[in-house]
Each structure stands twice: as C-alpha cells, then as structure tokens.
Recover the amino acids of this structure.
C-alpha cells in the first residue's frame, strides 16, 4: 500500500496535467492507508441466542445489555441469534413476559466474533431457583463429510441418557451410542459423526427402550447442531423431547 517515487524522474517527466494525476494518486494512496487502519480497528460483534430449559418459569423476556433478544419465550425453545456488541460483563435480565417481574439477573462474557447461548435452567426445582449460563457455541462448520452435534441433558426425571445416531437401514440393536451416560445438567460438547441420513434415538443409560426417536435427518456435511433434551413432564418415567437448533448450517 506504500507508493515509492523517484523524485528526479518525476521532476523531469511529469507535465502539469500529469502532476495533477499524480497528486490524486497520492491522495488515493493516503486514503487507502487510512481505510486499512479503520478496518484493523473494527471490533466484531457477538452473536447471542437464548435456550429456555426452565420447567418452572413462566413465559419470559430476555434482555442482554438492555436489548430484548427474546420475547414471550417458553420451555424447549431455542431462538435465532441476535447481534450484540462484545463485552466482558454483559448484563442479562430474565423477566416474566406478563407483568415484567424479574426472575433472575446475571452477567456473562460475549466474545468478539463468537456465538453464545444464554442458557436458562432450573431442573424443575423451585427451591434452587433459576440459573443463567452463557455457553460458547461453535461458529465454524464441521469438516467436509462430517457433522457435529452438542447435547444438553436437562431431563431430571429420565436421568443420564445414551444418544444414538442410527444410520438409514440400520437398527438400534446394530448401533453404538454416539454419546453414553450423559448426566443431567451436563453437555457432551461437540461430537463428530460421518454425514449420512440418520435417526436420533435417546434412551436412559444402559436401556434399549427408546424415550425419543426423531424423524429421519439427512446430514450432508458441515452442519453443527445443538440438541436440548427435556422431560415432557416432571412425572415418573416420562418420555423426552429433543429440540435441535442450527449453530452452523
């Protein structure tokens, strides 16, 4: 981006019109340097969404740094990403959608150029209160020919679970769990599998009777997904639901 001039050659060969053009070129070069400096100092925003896994909360509104990023949100919902400035101490307010009463206030770090989830939980126990955790989500695609899934187990009545990705044409008995003994309140992180058409099956750990079976999922490669696992109701032996959200298409 730096222009080097030979002064004797310029003085000897440039006429007045050419000097004007040269001056314009120098100005453009200087502008280009300034533009580069501006780009270098630009701070990337943070992408933020909400995952509502609370059993006892009413429908909620969620504000981050005073900006509403979710309204009238219910359990089992994962929102799309909103764009927010990066900050090390983002203020997070969760309020009841009706009446506006405050349920929980928290703080979290929003990294520049990263994706995050505001994760609301309580495990169905009113005595423990609500918890808000800021998760860092993956923002890069899975490698070619691979798909990556993260599992969040918030099914306290079901307990620890095994998760299978059963290939098309295979059976559960033929398959090995992708994730085993995933405890309540735990995350399996991002787990990679070969991209193909699969059915997701969730069972209690060590049990072969499914509590959840998805529809067929055609994985083509590069996908990154988060799966929220919940009891359908807080009674003994309930089935579970699984909400699948796109982290990266």
């Amino acid at each position: 981006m730096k222009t080097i001039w030979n002064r004797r050659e310029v003085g000897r060969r440039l006429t007045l019109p050419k000097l004007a053009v040269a001056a314009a070129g120098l100005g453009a070069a200087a502008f280009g340097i300034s533009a580069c400096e501006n780009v270098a100092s630009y701070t990337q925003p943070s992408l933020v969404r909400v995952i509502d896994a609370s059993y006892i909360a009413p429908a909620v509104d969620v504000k981050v740094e005073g900006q509403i990023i979710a309204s009238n949100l219910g359990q089992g919902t994962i929102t799309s990403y909103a764009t927010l400035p990066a900050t090390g101490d983002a203020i997070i307010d969760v309020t009841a959608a009706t009446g506006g009463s405050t349920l929980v206030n928290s703080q979290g770090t929003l990294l520049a150029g990263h994706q995050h989830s505001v994760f609301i939980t309580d495990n169905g126990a009113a005595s423990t209160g609500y918890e808000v955790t800021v998760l860092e989500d993956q923002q890069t695609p899975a490698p070619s020919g691979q798909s990556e899934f993260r599992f969040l187990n918030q099914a306290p009545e079901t307990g620890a679970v095994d998760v299978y990705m059963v290939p098309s044409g295979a059976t559960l008995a033929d398959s090995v769990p992708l994730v085993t003994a995933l405890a309540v309140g735990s995350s399996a992180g991002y787990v990679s599998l070969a991209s193909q058409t699969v059915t997701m099956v969730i069972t209690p750990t060590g049990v072969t009777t499914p509590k959840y079976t998805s529809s067929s999922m055609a994985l083509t490669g590069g996908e990154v997904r988060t799966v929220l696992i919940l009891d359908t109701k807080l009674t003994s032996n309930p089935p579970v639901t699984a909400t699948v959200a796109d982290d990266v298409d």
About this structure: Residues 16-41 form the longest helix (26 residues). The chain has a mean pLDDT of 85.
